[in-house]
Hints:
Blueprint: H1 3-28, E1 45-50, H2 58-65, E2 73-79, H3 86-96, E3 101-106, H4 115-126, E4 131-135, H5 145-151, E5 157-162, E6 164-170, H6 172-194, E7 204-208, H7 209-213, H8 227-237, E8 241-244, E9 249-255, H9 258-275, H10 277-280, H11 289-302, H12 306-328, H13 336-354, E10 359-362, E11 365-368, E12 377-378
Amino acid sequence: xxxxxxxxxxxxxxxxxxxxxxxxxxxxxxxxxxxxxxxxxxxxxxxxxxxxxxxxxxxxxxxxxxxxxxxxxxxxxxxxxxxxxxxxxxxxxxxxxxxxxxxxxxxxxxxxxxxxxxxxxxxxxxxxxxxxxxxxxxxxxxxxxxxxxxxxxxxxxxxxxxxxxxxxxxxxxxxxxxxxxxxxxxxxxxxxxxxxxxxxxxxxxxxxxxxxxxxxxxxxxxxxxxxxxxxxxxxxxxxxxxxxxxxxxxxxxxxxxxxxxxxxxxxxxxxxxxxxxxxxxxxxxxxxxxxxxxxxxxxxxxxxxxxxxxxxxxxxxxxxxxxxxxxxxxxxxxxxxxxxxxxxxxxxxxxxxxxxxxxxxxxxxxxxxxxxxxxxxxxxxxx
Length: 383
């Protein structure tokens, strides 16, 4: 076999792997808006929501949290400072839904370098029920939110999660974020879970509180800089698995800038590199650039035209990805293809950036992620 053939085969293998992941994820996922599986038992649930500041869709996400169809649940909103502008918004929404039990918990517990986890501690301790959901404030909860999470719980489950599904983009950069979140990250996470490699996602996490309390409680999630990484390692160590809901929950995006996308993706990438380096390293092979460069090199060496190789790789990567979005009712527009291309152009740079140290901003908290987990530090948060 000559070099041109070897390069062509390597390119084809990457395209085939990409297609396989889409087929596996597509089989695992239900379309957006599909009803969850039936749940026979409906125990009371506590939902812990860490909040900070006003976000693009705060009014709607708050209202949705008070409109869940589960028979009995409580909402515990955790805020570090009582003068946070989100507090009056929560109070107004709670007043409009007096039938739902809701509390605002104020305080700044510092159990580690993760500001979100620090904010959740008081909510976890105040939760009155055995089943507890840790839910980000920007999750757009459907009415059957709790049903979806509870329906995914099985006998071997340690935690149930949902990836964020990007929706309602305002502008091209928000379209790019949709392509990062949906047909790239959610697709690979669901494909991995279907193959037995479930990874937790911090956007929505359902826990059986007695089980976690017997193994260190919420403080155990401080073992890693990211609580989802700590969750994954904890449940695997206990012999359990991470399971995902049948259909991920929306995160409405609104307006985004290129700098915001770069910062957010770089942060997540560095966290993955620190917590799961063995799984992170092969991420350089994802996207269109690796198979495209291999195919073009093969064509050059073989002396064949470049255009067919270019078109074959682009079609092999992007048509199945668009098909997955269309089949599942995810965001798909005229901007989706250029957004996918820009995303894939950014991915190698983000991957390389992940191997370097430096500061990141995590919702107003400046954090330093070095080249090893032991270098993780938190700078003092602002008032």
